[in-house]
Amino acid sequence: MLKTLEQINQELETLKNNNQQAIQKCEEGLAEVEPKITQAQLNLREAQKTVDAEAYDKAKRELWTAENTKKMLQEQLDELRTQPLMSQNEAEKLKKDIFEYTQNENYRIIDQAVTKLEELRRLVEKSAELRKQHRSAVGVIQREILKDNSLSGLYETIYSGRSLENTEELIEKLTRKLSRE
């Protein structure tokens, strides 16, 4: 079964959010390690001044650890900012799923539109038949009941109220357009 666009968008949003959270975690780690480097450098200089080998060794290890932690976090941050969040194959499959879902949904919508157009066509035909009956009934009154065959009476047979007249052409255009796609 194809995934819906909503499901696909949710997956993409999760990928983006997870990446952003990992970036934020690295940035926070870098912000935390900077003071440790500074402090280790101060401790190292202080140990050199006092010629304290033990303190010097400890400060040197702390500095090495902090600098390597910074390097590791910076490399991880660079990777998170530049590396794709999915493989090219996964992305192509997802694009294909998006296309298929969209195409299927559009066909479903077009089928609904065609059904509505068919219903509208029936209503237009009913409206045309009603106008025809109107002209006939008013014509009978004018010509046969009132015995008036003048042109002024002919005008009265034309229905001037609201109707679906002239919508047949629009329906045909829409039907042709939908059937081409």
Q: What descriptive keywords fit this protein?
A:
mainly alpha, 181 residues
Distance between the termini: 24 Å
Instruction: Tell me, rounded to a whole number, the average pLDDT.
Output: 88
Query: Rg from C-alpha positions?
Result: 40 Å
Most strands sheet: none
Element-level helix/strand string = HHHHH
Which structural class best describes the helix and strand composition? Answer: mainly alpha
Helical element count? Answer: 5
How many individual β-strands?
0
Instruction: Tell me what portion of residues adopts beta-strand conformation.
Output: under 5%
Into which percent range does the helicity of residues fall?
A: over 70%
Contiguous runs where pLDDT drops below 50 for at least 5 residues: none
What is the global morphology? rod-shaped
Walk me through what this model shows:
This protein is mainly α and 181 residues long. It is built from five helices and no strands. Helix 1 packs antiparallel against helix 2 and helix 3 runs antiparallel to helix 5. The radius of gyration is 40 Å and the shape is rod-shaped. The model has no long low-confidence stretch (mean pLDDT 88).
